[in-house]
Amino acid sequence: MAEPIVRIDGLRKSFGALAVTNDVALDVMPGELHALIGPNGAGKTTLIHQIAGTLRPDAGRVLIDGADLTGAPPAARARAGLARTFQITSIIPSLDALGNVALAAQARAKRPLRLFGRVAADEALNGEARAALAAVGLSTRAAVPAGRLSHGEKRALEIAMALAMGPKVLLLDEPMAGVGREESGRIVELLRSLKGRYALLLVEHDMEAVFSLADRISVLVYGEVIASGTPQAIRSDPAVRAAYLGDEAA
Ligand SMILES: Nc1ncnc2c1ncn2[C@@H]1O[C@H](COP(=O)(O)OP(=O)(O)OP(=O)(O)O)[C@@H](O)[C@H]1O
């Protein structure tokens, strides 16, 4: 059987007396879209921070592609194949879309850059950036300053920047947040197109999107995973309905 790309085990983090992640275990298999849902304040963002390396757990382990990176900084996790998109936009508004993605590709290509001539290196970076833009459907917007893109296009650009890092797994933190209905439909299709090629861990409040996309859903309530399974199993789980979904999933 294939090994998980991300495996977390016994993860604990408390702020004072509040256990925000309480013995959380979760894995993401190659090509799988695993969604993490839960009510406001359940601990989803705190969990993502611990996986990304921006917050150190009190206990437990984070393995990426088999390597124990529990105490490693975000850069080491990126080298192991983890890329993250942010809830808060991380793009440079005055730079065009292609330039933003090329910068992300450059962060990954640091060493090879010294080996090639500058022009060749720039061309290679631009090639990678164009491929990532094409993968998110933004090829025709390459020369547009990122600040002038629509909100949904900015979300897609952030995903292109993550793809340019050559990841094995993408952490997607609310990619649909603040995006209108039509554009969120486009992001759903974009995520669907990435499934199978990348492992995806998606935190998202849009239940329609989650239930149409996910292979597996884990439900976090008060810092604990109360259920994990297929969308169908989660929809009909009495504990999940009582704690979170209520009539929403009917
Ligand atoms: N640095 C911190 N110090 C103290 N408490 C914190 C800190 N970060 C988060 N918390 C608390 O931890 C709990 C979980 O917060 P978290 O942001 O992880 O939840 P969430 O599931 O991502 O919520 P949302 O869906 O609203 O984004 C909340 O009660 C929050 O107030």
Automatic annotation (TrEMBL):
Family membership: Belongs to the ABC transporter superfamily.
Keyword ATP-binding: yes
Stretches assigned to the ABC transporter domain: 6-247
Nucleotide-binding listed as a keyword: yes
Originating organism: Alsobacter soli
Pfam families per the UniProt record, alphabetical: ABC_tran (PF00005), BCA_ABC_TP_C (PF12399)
Gene Ontology MF annotations: ATP binding; ATP hydrolysis activity
Gene Ontology CC: plasma membrane
Keywords assigned by UniProt, alphabetized: ATP-binding, Nucleotide-binding, Transport
Name this protein carries in UniProt: ABC transporter ATP-binding protein
SUPFAM superfamilies: P-loop containing nucleoside triphosphate hydrolases
